Amino acid sequence: MSMEIKVPELPESVSEATVGEWHVAAGDSVDRDQNVVDLETDKVMLEVPATAAGTIKEIRVEAGQTVHAGDVLAIVEEGEGGAAGGADDTSSDDASPTASDEDTDDGEDKDDGDHPIPSPAARKLMDEHGLAAGDVKGSGKDGRITKGDVLSAVEDKPEAPAPAKSKPQAEPAADTDKAPASADKADQAAIKAGAGERLEQRVPMTRIRARIAERLLEATQSTAMLTTFNEVDMQAVTDVRDRYKEKFEKDHDVRLGFMSFFVKAAVEALKRFPVVNASIDAEDIVYHGYYDVGIAVSSPRGLLVPILRDADQLSYAEIESSIRSLGKRAQESKITMDELSGGTFTITNGGVFGSMLSTPILNPPQSAILGMHAVNDRPMVVDGEIRVRPMMYLALSYDHRIIDGRDAVLFLRTIKELIEDPARLLLQI
């Protein structure tokens, strides 16, 4: 009996999705609930499971195409599933999981049964770079070769003169619309592919990149954004970390970082300046009586801002643990829509990449965002003497329509004072 694998109901406010990487090919055996394909929305990555155990009979939508809720992605013929497929290694080549009709019909020596077959996206990239299945080590299910594996192999491949072409051509746009091992690897592979030639490559934005661009443009065009700066001496916080980091990690099974101090300081400052925690709704100012702090984290698909709910009620250990969990799941594209929704204030830390100073852009409908930066030793005048201190620049971007310059400056100064004297956080003074 054949069953359809359909696009699931999409999250609220999301109308369509882009088909990402297929983890199976026609003829593959699958188990019930096994992830067969990734769908990329403008906010999260969704996994689509097999509706039944059996064999993939047909894949109807290729990677890179746009789909809507209810669209049929593939057909699965019910059977024994993946376990049965793996037991047929000693049978004929036609039944072997490392060969398919597509591989033998085209007459090309690509996959001879001694190597796992690549995914459709990986095969296309292998053909373009002249790689055979034996040249790439697969990391997917049953050793299947993914596009990320091919990109890694391309990077490791010795430089060779580019093949003669009648005229330079840009690589197909579909090559980069599926999530690679990382955005950096995809960019590097594209550059290496055109080494020695004056090539240009035109590719469509991923959904999340297009959404990021849309929201950043919205923030700059629909708000009266202004940024104020200050600097903070990190010596006190550094001393606390050095003194208690081993015991903290032992007791809570998580490292003590700077972020928990800044979250605590930001919440205390938000309590003192409620307008910074507010937002504009039409002609009204909405004051929030809770503190949902967004933490900007990087992912292979771009910058995401998951939310720490009720941050004022979290301990230092709970904040550090939550941030660590969110960061890990962001890397794995497993952040949920609920975790990205809402938020009354955002903190972003460009310092982890070495940024010295920046002007962070607002995350609408929020009215303010705090930017942390790198900690660098600098000569400072302390008690009339020049001393070397670990200093960090802070930036607060805010919507000047509802936040006056005075409140913004005092808010940022409050954070500075709390960080420079962490005991204030405990005493709330």
Automatic annotation (TrEMBL):
Provenance organism: Spectribacter hydrogenoxidans
This protein is called: Dihydrolipoyllysine-residue succinyltransferase component of 2-oxoglutarate dehydrogenase complex
Instruction: Report the residue ranges that make up the Lipoyl-binding domain in this protein.
Output: 2-77
| Its EC number(s) | 2.3.1.61
What is the enzyme's class at the highest EC level?
transferase
Q: Which reaction does it catalyse?
A: N(6)-[(R)-dihydrolipoyl]-L-lysyl-[protein] + succinyl-CoA = N(6)-[(R)-S(8)-succinyldihydrolipoyl]-L-lysyl-[protein] + CoA
* Residues in Peripheral subunit-binding (PSBD) domain copies: 117-154
Q: What does this protein do?
A: E2 component of the 2-oxoglutarate dehydrogenase (OGDH) complex which catalyzes the second step in the conversion of 2-oxoglutarate to succinyl-CoA and CO(2).
Family indicated by similarity: Belongs to the 2-oxoacid dehydrogenase family.
Annotated Low complexity bias: 86-99, 162-194
Residues of the region (Disordered) are 81-126, 153-198
Cofactor details (free text): Binds 1 lipoyl cofactor covalently.
Q: In which pathway does it act?
A: Amino-acid degradation; L-lysine degradation via saccharopine pathway; glutaryl-CoA from L-lysine: step 6/6
What GO molecular functions are on record for this protein? dihydrolipoyllysine-residue succinyltransferase activity
- The entry's keywords: Acyltransferase, Lipoyl, Transferase, Tricarboxylic acid cycle
| Compositional bias annotation for Acidic residues | 100-111
Q: Entry's PROSITE patterns? A: BIOTINYL_LIPOYL, PSBD
Cofactor(s) recorded for this entry are: (R)-lipoate
